Amino acid sequence: MQISERQSAGAHTARGGKAESEEEIIRKILSLERKAAEYKRKNRLEWYNKGRRVHLKQLEFHKCLKRNRWVFGGNRTGKTECGAVEAVWLARGIHPYRANRSDVRGWIVSVSREVQREVAQSKILDYVNPDWIEDIVMSAGRASNPRAGIIDTITIKNVLGGSSVITFKSCEMGREKFQGASLDFVWFDEEPPEDVYNECRMRVMDRKGEIFGTMTPLKGLTFAYYKIFLNEDGDSEMWHETMEWRDNPFLDEKEIERVSAALDPSALESRRYGRFSAECGPVYPEFDERVHVIKPFDVPFLWQDKLSIDPGLNNPLSCHWYCVDGDGNIYVVAEHYAAGKDIAWHSRRICEKCGQLGWHTGFGGRYDALIDAAATQRTLASARPVTELFYERGINCNAKVDKQLFAGISRVKQYLAGDGPKLYIFDSCVNMIREFKSYWWGNGDVPRKKDDHAMDELRYYVMSRPEPNVPRRETDELTRFKEKLIRRRARRA
Known about the structure:
Layout: H1 5-42, H2 56-63, E1 68-73, H3 79-92, E2 105-110, H4 113-118, H5 120-127, E3 133-140, E4 150-157, E5 163-170, E6 185-189, H6 194-203, E7 210-215, H7 223-229, E8 238-243, H8 253-262, H9 265-271, H10 289-292, E9 293-294, E10 304-310, E11 317-324, E12 330-338, H11 343-357, E13 367-371, H12 386-392, E14 395-398, H13 405-416, E15 423-426, H14 430-438, H15 453-463, H16 477-492
């Protein structure tokens, strides 16, 4: 069949029109993809910790409402990321978990100007949409290319009204350069000198602002270890968490193992796990607050066992209440810890605590306790032994305790680790928890004699080989079910 020229031209035009339409569609798709990529680049904050992989430790930090919060993390754990997001949320007035303010003033403190440019400044620019920026003042470089230079201040729009100013500071400036300002927040990116830290705490006082820090503990047992990690001053607004490589869902497991194998033990502690380390190391590295510290719960009367006391006059007297469940798990449920008081004062407080707990009594209506064998000796403070003074005041102290140091430490380690943890501490026992973290080996392969009072009386108790206090008798099904629920609740807590 013959095809006319008109039909042939029409078919060609149709094919040409169709080809042009496909090209136009492709161009539109590519344009939309570029716009989507540009939008995502400018609005990274919208994608932070959303999707399939969520960094749970970062969320814990953001959700904590304490005013002095710290993340001790290894390298590449995501600690700096959450510090930058926290600063941007506060400055922008869009924090999802805290009360927001307008016209926020904050400092970001880095170790040096060079580190500022490469780390904290870069992260801030990642999460600040350029459309929010009202002004940038540079210490070096051009405001048109802030990533290549060093920023002094960056002013951004606050959604609640006004403008927020973020100022970048360097520790190498010295303490004097941190005076005078009134601030809503200070973010320390890595550990500052102690005098700079103390000065910055003064800067947030009048506005009831907050301090937060993200650091890898590479300097050993500095003030950050004692003042922040151990919270020696008992600041109720102090909080911290640790991050290790496996907490970061974006790190490859094989790469974690490869790099771990290349690090020596000391470097591994700080660079992977974010732990403070000294040359001799902790006595109980098995201790993990996330595992061994639990929320208080109503302990069954049958679990109550005894008290354990490490006496002291000028030094603290440490006393804890110990319970044992039917499976042999030990629970430290209460503490009395004080220094500079006499036996009469300590006895009253211990008996008051026993009354509050509904603690069982033993022979003669007295409370049973273990105590250091040295308590049987007379001291300059009294003509009679400490055990007699306690006995007269309602506490029957057994001084026949096993004081073997290394055997006791080994036994405690078994309860902390072994086939599964069998030692749990109520989070109200703050001094025992603090001592667990500060109990380090000293010279001569023995622990340092500092802040070890709770550790000593814990060892006395563990070496007493407590038997489960639940009578071995046949119980009905309902009772067994109730006891099972109690144990499950304790472990989950």
